[in-house]
Records
---
Amino acid sequence: MSGSAVLSVAVQMEDFSVEEALRRLRQAAPGAGAEVAFVGLVRDQAGSVTSLTLEHYPGMSERSMLAVCERAAKRWPLLAVEAIHRVGTLGPGDQIVLVLVSSAHRHAAFEGAQYIMDAFKSEVVFWKLEDRDGEKVWIEAAPSDHQALTAWEETSGEGAP
């Protein structure tokens, strides 16, 4: 459980390599039977987003991310977690966040990764300023993000909300 899980979190401006992060995850948990990867991207469904600028409070964001990963490792038998969140100005299609989770079994890996992302969206503070055709709009967590985290908190055992 959490005592043996290897947890790594980072906030950085530079892009990340999923392949390099997966290599680190495999080194941290060589006995894993399952790995789950989630990559979040800057989306532009309406074709009007020119950029997304993310800011954070250094130190606080990393501590919040680590606390979420620790909770996940206490709830599921995770072997390793690697989470990276980018800051700075990004364009449509750019990678924003990476969550990699390994476990002996797929259900724990899937659920652990989903929980971590749901908690990141609701709890970890990143200020997001979207530029939509020259108009700047602050983006906040959606009610559905908070509802997803609440559903996890209401379930005491493993199982999707």
---
Amino acid sequence: PLEQLVQECCEILEVPRPRVIVRNHPEPQAYLVAVADQPHLVLTSGLLDLFEPAPQQLRFFVGRELGRLKCNQLRLRQVRFGL
């Protein structure tokens, strides 16, 4: 279900699907990291446990991070064209 949720959010936001990593950590967090110029979406087990009964609320956090990915890509594209 998590992979499907990320895929649906990527399609809605029209961003390439990042690699999804689940980190075993009790604190609920979601963030993006770039590894070798490829985005990775990191979700902690605490976040997944918190929103297990309400997957639509988890969608908000995934969408928020993917929106940041989309914004960063646009900014990098503008810088590249400016150079």
---
Amino acid sequence: MLFLHYPKCTTCQKAAKWLADQGAAFEARDIKSDNPTLAELTEWHRRWYQTSGLPLKRFFNTSGLQYRALGLKDKLADMSEEEQLALLATDGMLVKRPLLVTETAVLPGFKEEAWREALQVRG
């Protein structure tokens, strides 16, 4: 399991603690210093979309400073998925975090219930 996070992010810290409390083994990767590649993002989005049907916009950190500085709220709708993925690959701080990638699931953002279901952990 790959856990992409920003160490200073309190939600990421909470998610990491939750994973540890579940006894989950995972590889932690700093999303800022080791940004996801275009190939990774493309594959993760493809897998995530197949299971969720949700738009690529959900992969963006819409509350982040970079997102706001670039005015992406008004620009994303006019961008193709390829352009959006290429943009995400330029800066890990644009990517919704934490991002959990398992063999069967890709989960942007920490929603305990979704993570519990994906990891088949009982409540």
